[in-house]
Design goal:
The protein has about 100 residues and is mainly alpha-helical. The chain has one domain. The protein is built from 7 helices and no strands. The chain has helices at about 1-10, 15-25, 30-40, 45, 60-65, 70-75, 75-100. It is globular and about 40 Å long.
Length: about 100
């Protein structure tokens, strides 16, 4: 698993961050999880605008929003609107599920 984790970390970028985050949670890859979270925090202004941001797990979103590093890289208004977007996405998914 170490070689896999090394490869994921080495190839981490904005287009793959959320996919790698999902994989790290699914397969309990702690180093990959830490690196994807660190990457997300460093690039929060760009990352929160991607549609994949709205599909983060509750665990990943909570860890991101509770990190002290978040507010050193992003202003509070940006974080607020990112959270509102996440809530709207959750409500939209829930509404779709209730249709059927």
């Amino acid at each position: 698993m170490e070689l896999c984790s090394d490869w994921l970390i080495h190839n981490l970028d904005k287009t793959l961050c959320f996919s790698f985050m999902f994989l790290s949670e699914k397969y309990n890859l702690e180093r990959v999880s830490c690196e994807t979270n660190r990457f997300l925090l460093r690039n929060f202004p760009e990352m929160c605008k991607l549609k994949e941001f709205n599909f983060m797990s509750k665990t990943s979103l909570s860890r991101c929003l509770s990190s002290d590093g978040l507010f050193t890289n992003a202003d509070e208004e940006l974080v607020f609107f990112a959270v509102i977007g996440e809530i709207k996405a959750i409500m939209h998914i829930g509404a779709e599920e209730n249709i059927f």
